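Quick one: structure for this chain?
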Amino acid sequence: MKIRTRLVQLTYALHRWTGIAGCLLMLCWFISGITMLYVGYPKLTPWERLGALSALNADQEYRPITALPSYTPGAPFILTSIGNQPIYITAPQAGTSRSRNAHDAKEIDAQAPATALAAAQAYLPDTPMRYDTLIQEDRWTHSRSLDKHRPLHRIDTQSPNAGLLYVSSSTAQVVLDAPQAQQYWNYVGAWMHWLYPFRNHSTDPVWNWTMILLSGIGLLSSVSGIVVGIWRWRFSRPYRSGSHSPYRQGWMRWHHIIGLLFGAIVCTWIFSGLMAMNPAGVVFSNTVKPDLQAYQGPTAPIDPALSNPAAILARLQEQAFYAVELQWSRLDGMDHVVAYDAQAHTRLVMADPGGLSIRTTWPDQKVLQAARKLLPWPLAEHRILTRFDAYYYQRHPEAMNGAAIQHLPALRLDFEDPARTRIYIDLQTGEVSAVLTQAQRTWRWLFYFLHSWDTPELLAYHHTRNIVLILLSIGGIIVSLSGIVIGWRHLRHQPS
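Got it. Here's what it folds into:
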């Protein structure tokens, strides 16, 4: 009996003292979570990037990619626009991308402020702007996807498009835009939600463990609160007041009743937020990297027609497709070009005996043949997806992973390796879109699903889903706000 009494006392004390700090933190999380439904952390989506590019002109003269100084058979090349000029982006053997003028193959000085300013001006024409500085990282550039572009040129833009633009010092491409309004909303959105004031670098162990510790405190507070709330609630025999709660009025009554109603969702969201930090460190530890070189296949001299951008662009325009970017690639020994228009739609350009041909998707058997080489284990199962599944789906741009384009149809492959790896291949481009182990697929449910309810079925009802999430968040706000008042009164030794 003494042990039970002591356990009850410890549970009450745990909820009281973790709740004093935890409720303030949870209030910030709920308010910022609502904001993040509509305003995400700054990122440059493919639709924004490609939409700012003008269509490549088929009537211009381009240097064939085989004539470029850095040309290597089978190496990836991109033809795009930077500063309203057609530019090749190449990836030398050293691994750092470089930009060359597509007309004369002269290298662009991507580290020059004037080059960065010209690229930014082409991205936002008729917008006054000035060059700010060269930075390694700031509050809006924590994303690891920017590592290959660091250091970054930071450009200040004025009205009507006030904000910041970030330009790569490797390629001179605009890689991030942070409009002023988005910055302001982020202070009560993602910046507050992820406690970025405590984060100094994209990889920051101190910030990581701070988030884990605070999430753990919040989880202890919510779990102990549910237990205490159930203990204090009389299900069959009401109190003398006629109420099932011992608290007749005031903040304590609100905290008790609303806490019981919304305690489970509060606990679930804090737990899933904790899972986002991968506290055990095992989710990504056994990831197997697919052999992309084997998937691409052996190299061979490229067909001359496929190395000539003007011929490719003219062929695309015959089908009323106006490309803003061309990407040379290779799949199972077959060179091809993936063309993108300003809406991020794609076409495949291939060299056939009769000339250049245009396709919308890869033959699934051709991709399957190459995909078997991605991992050195047998293929257990494969299927063609014409609808999104629980692990391969498109998010709205505001979401954390909203910058990833997920096309359909897609090829899904399950391998018989120890990690039970699943690979998704975009059949519109032939690119490997996702590689997920069994641990990562489990983590997907513990974090993404529990935190944002992001199954394709729920995302199809985007506005209804948002309304439900907002109503549940309001319940969490009331629980947190009442807990703050009760905790403050407790600290001041006032009756609650």
